[in-house]
Amino acid sequence: MATASGVPSTSVTKSFCISITIKVFFIVCSRFPVSYPYYIRIMPLFASGYFEKGDFPMTLPLTMRFSVCNGVIFRYREDAAVAKFEMGTLLLSLRFTGHDTPLILTAPAEIGQNAELVLFPWRMELWVEDKLMDEEWPHGDPLLLTAAFAEGTAPSFSKPLPRPVPPAVLGEFRHAEGWKPEGEVYVGDCMPYFDADRYHVLYLKDRHRHHSKWHKGAHQWEHLSTNDLRTFQIHPMAVPIDDPNEGSICTGSHIRRGDTHYLYYTVRTMDGSPAPIRRSVSTDGYHFGKDKDFSFTLSETYTGASARDPKLVLDEAGLYHMFVTSTQRKSGRGCLVHLTSRDLDTWTEETDPIYLAPDAAEPECPDYLALNGYYYLIFSLHGKGHYLYSRKPFTDFITPDDPIIPCKSVPKAAVFQGRILFAGFDGDGKYAGTLTFKEAFQTPSGLLTFGEVAEVQEY
Fold first, then answer.
1. How many CB atoms lie within 10 A of CB 4?
2. DSSP element (H, E) containing 215
3. What is the pLDDT of residues 387-444, one digit of tens each?
4. Residues in Cβ contact with 245 at an 8 Å cutoff, skipping those fewer than 6 apart
5. Cα dist. 408→136, 233, 252, 432 in Å?
6. DSSP code, position 13
7. Nearest-angstrom CA–CA distance, 409 and 427
8. What are the CA-CA distances from residue 336 to residues 275, 308, 333, 377 (Å)?
9. C-alpha span between 102 and 321 (Å, rounded)
10. How many CA within 13 A on the CB side of residue 86?
11. Which of 1, 11, 46, 385: CA 20 to 30 A from 238?
12. Contact 333, 301 (CB under 8 A)
């Protein structure tokens, strides 16, 4: 019989035990494991995994703890939540209101290992033996909260405690060419910038090759930096998903004003409504928080749902410029919308886009560089980087005979110690993959040639 909370009750007298578990979260790179952060959790364990109404609220956040065994480990009615183990793979399936298909998490495992599903309103995590193995990002209410138990061994439930603020540096690694995080985590669009004598790379953290969150992507911004291109430091996540309505945090850019760092991006919405342009703010450049008071969308001149990838630039007169990927409605052509601002808060659309594509292809991941009297407008078409150049800022761009930037997918650049360094990802035909770099060399005529970055290939 199920209680009002949807969890089966039991007529036997329950025995309680309280265990204190010190849990270590692992954030790892491909070669250097880093332990962080620590927290103490008080976990109530109930006999047979059952508890009666009033003992424990079935609300989020929630942790489900269970042991791996062969076949169906547990199943709730209407397949609201199913855990099973077959052929060395642990699989969890959860259903949510408003969606016909479940979200699925998988991990390699062994019989007898301890596993946990940590479920937040905006994220769910699968842990095996204290190691994060997979993630998904929910939308809607989990049917588990009202479903009756059907078969198997019911999991025990607990409440996760808040996690502390991480340190500015979580670890480091060398040989950045070809790097990716450990496990089934991949590097997506890269957003390099230069600040405080360091070359920074923000990148889209990808799981499931853009298939997360019912194919919305569920991308979040991770953060790396280096002062010599040989050793890269790993920093805390810059922009996480923390709202179920966020389908994905799209590509964007960094800009600094005084001691304040800003990250501008668009959010892919779950309902397909116009993508709002939003920002996160930091005073140390490593711990960012979302500015809940800042949000706007493009005018009806452009298609709002496809708006993405804002690039910010400060000109010599102190005016801020923003370029945003979209489509011009009247022509049906892809474009880079041009906006300006005096204060980074209030933005005005310029009459014409800074770039209007020859067809419907939208120019993605725009970038802009100024070096030695030349100005470069950079964007990607169908994943391939292109550049234009000009002697004037923001206008009169020339398309070179060979405009391709040979840095795999959607490269962007930053000037580091006088060098133009592009960062992109190598997906081997798929979305997201490993980190890759190219250096651009400026000729006297303003054209660019390209070569390898030797330092990122050193071990």
1. 10
2. helix 212-215
3. 999 999 999 999 999 999 999 999 999 999 999 999 999 999 999 999 999 999 999 9
4. 139, 269, 270, 271
5. 27, 23, 18, 11
6. P
7. 8
8. 15, 10, 10, 10
9. 42
10. 7
11. 385
12. no
CA-to-CA distance for 304 and 300, rounded, in angstroms?
7
The encoded tokens of residue 459 equal 């071990």
Per-residue pLDDT of the chain (459 residues), as tens digits, is 333 333 333 333 333 333 333 333 333 333 233 333 322 232 333 323 333 333 445 799 999 999 999 999 999 999 999 999 999 999 999 999 999 999 999 999 999 999 999 999 999 999 999 999 999 999 999 999 999 999 999 999 999 988 999 999 999 999 999 999 999 999 999 999 999 999 999 999 999 999 999 999 999 999 999 999 999 999 999 999 999 999 999 999 999 999 999 999 999 999 999 999 999 999 999 999 999 999 999 999 999 999 999 999 999 999 999 999 999 999 999 999 999 999 999 999 999 999 999 999 999 999 999 999 999 999 999 999 999 999 999 999 999 999 999 999 999 999 999 999 999 999 999 999 999 999 999 999 999 999 999 999 999
Which residue ranges form the domains of the chain, and what is each CATH number?
16-158 (2.60.120), 171-457 (2.115.10.20)
3-class secondary-structure state, position 10? coil
- Contact between 106 and 148 under an 8 Å Cβ cutoff? The reply is no
The region that residue 219 occupies, defined by phi over 0 for left and psi between -120 and 50 for alpha, beta otherwise, is: beta
Decide if 338 contacts 326 (C-beta within 8 A): no
CB 389 within 8 A of CB 395: no
Residue by residue, what is the 3-state secondary structure of 150-177?
EEECCCEEECCCCCCCCCCCCEEEECCC
Scan for tokens 């405690």, then name that residue. Answer: 161
Residue range 140-171, pLDDT digits in tens = 999 999 999 999 999 999 999 889 999 999 99
Tell me if 425 sits within 8 A of 188, measured CB to CB: yes
Is 0.85 topped by the overall pTM? Answer: yes
Residue 214: strand, helix, or coil: helix
Report the alpha-carbon angle 395-338-305, nearest 5. Answer: 140
Residue 49 structure tokens = 């995994």
**307 burial class (0-12, 13-18, 19+ CB within 10 angstroms)?**
buried
CA nearest neighbour of 192 among 311, 283, 289: 311
Cα torsion 380, 384, 385, 389 to 10°: value is: -80
Q: Taking the C-alpha atoms of 255, 258, 260 and 265 in order, what is their torsion angle to the nearest 10 degrees?
A: -20
Strand pairing report for 384-390 and 404-416 = antiparallel
